[in-house]
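Hi again,

Forgot to attach this to my earlier email, sorry! This is the prediction with arginine bound. I've pasted everything inline since the attachment limit keeps bouncing my files.
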Amino acid sequence: MNTPRQELEARVALAVGKAFSPVPPGPYVRPCPDSRHGDFQTNAALVQAKEAKANPREVAAQLIAALDLSDIADAPEIAGPGFLNFRLKPAYLAQQVRARAADGRLGVPTVVKPETVIMDYSGPNIAKEMHVGHLRSTVLGDALARLYCFIGHKVVADNHIGDWGTGFGMILYGYKREGDAEKLRQDPFGHLEGIYRRIQEESKTDETVREAAKRELVLLQQGDAKNRELWEQFRTYSLAALDVMYQRFGVQFDYTLGESFYNDMLPGVVAELQKKGIARESEGAVAIFSDGTLPQKDDPFLVSDKGEFRDNPLLVRKSDGGFNYATTDLATIRYRHDHFHAERVIYVVDGRQQMHFRQLFEASRRWGYTEMKLEHVWFGTILGPDKKPFKSREGENVKLRALVAEAEERAAAILTEKRPEMNEHERGALARIVGLGALKYADLAQNRNLDYVFTWEKLLAFDGNTAPYLQNAYVRIRAIFRKAGLTEAPQAEVILTEPAELALSRKLLDFADSIFMAAEEYRPHYLCLYLFELATFFHKFYEACPVLIAEPPVRDSRLVLCDLTARTLRQGLNLLGIEVVEQM
Ligand code: ARG
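Structure tokens for the complex follow:
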């Protein structure tokens, strides 16, 4: 099913092909910036006029003559210097709304060329509890995985956990001294983090502790049975604890391969890079340097230093023989290519790693992985009220568990106030959905490249661009159906006459566009904004157009609009990883 924009695009493309030669490049149609002038517009005539050095309004008239739109839009008007504005016909809108209402996918097409897409997100370093710093990657990555899956790609969600870092040397050393198997089982993060912190502190002043921790790490890396067994335990219990959180979040992975999985491949990767002349030895280490093929300012292996460019190598083997974060990522790229036949890899990782990924992608290109699309979908920092990275009162990272718990508590308090008669059990269940939804949405609704200030009040507000506002719009519609004694909308003609009905219908038809825009640019906030506008248009419609007291053909038509709105909200929120409720 074409969206109205796609349909117009196809028609305009046809006309452009007939009227102009050479044909100016598309896309031609975009939404009208001011809806008073039309629903969509094209600047094709302007582009052509500039190219052919002709009068734009005359060119626009030629384009109109070649256009056949009579079944979908009013006769186009020439606006300003030579834009064409299009206004969709009510009958076309009505027919399109009806078609979407009858479609399980609500009119959202699937992509023509499905790809195997690896979604790399969350990726916490284990042996540490997840904190607020992991919220964005987890929530954004989950939404993108859902979006890509929904539009027809084959998504492989892979949690690239940090389970093989230098930290394990300290943990092993400390655990052998003061570890407790029971505590590890009960509270793996609490126990391991405590140990890690003490050893890290001691190693600052005590050379022998530092050396001992290093020895433990080398033993682990050499495959020492005892250390390997302990590490397995740390990993198993940490993963189980992480899983509790993921379940609470409704987030699922297909794989949790993690850094350790690639460990045995690393020497081979470095050898191959050296053989191909991509990496070379330097001061005992092995690193990748600029090959001079890129313009200096675009070369990630160079940095500008007071106007001069100097080397900015990517280390793939340390001088002590150990491997780097980047080495593992290179091995991962090869594995994802060879094993999964990935066509695209999406890394949902903090913006502070931009340089790492620029170097990684350029190194992969030189290594020969030129077909696979590699995207660093980066995000900014969550800030506290003081505009500094969000920390607890004690100055620690806020644990994700605490954040969710507080969201639930606050949601429960609001629900108690709004619906004092609700029983405890029902309120608890609702608060979990509303609290978590609000937390996720507050993140997803932001432009991911910006830092944002975290405020509970904003997040849980029942009006504004928030999850509770959208969930509430859904609840309102469900209440209409309950009141009417209906479980679903009637199969009815759609009749659009009132401006509020027309506005809501136009918005309903934009659903697919918002989804594709969010997916293509890896920006779920486009979908959030769409849902917020949809809910706003619904409320305006609901104020202006009585539903249940209207006469039958209009009543049924309005019920169709209500139902399609509810299903669009539910599907949209679901793609963001947020549930709806029937009452709140
Ligand atoms: N563990 C990493 C960190 O905490 C994130 C991993 C991201 N994924 C990757 N393939 N590098 O920063």
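Residues 151 and 160 are 24 Å apart (CA to CA). Residues 400-575 form a domain with the Isoleucyl-tRNA Synthetase; Domain 1 fold (CATH 1.10.730.10).

That should be everything now.

G.
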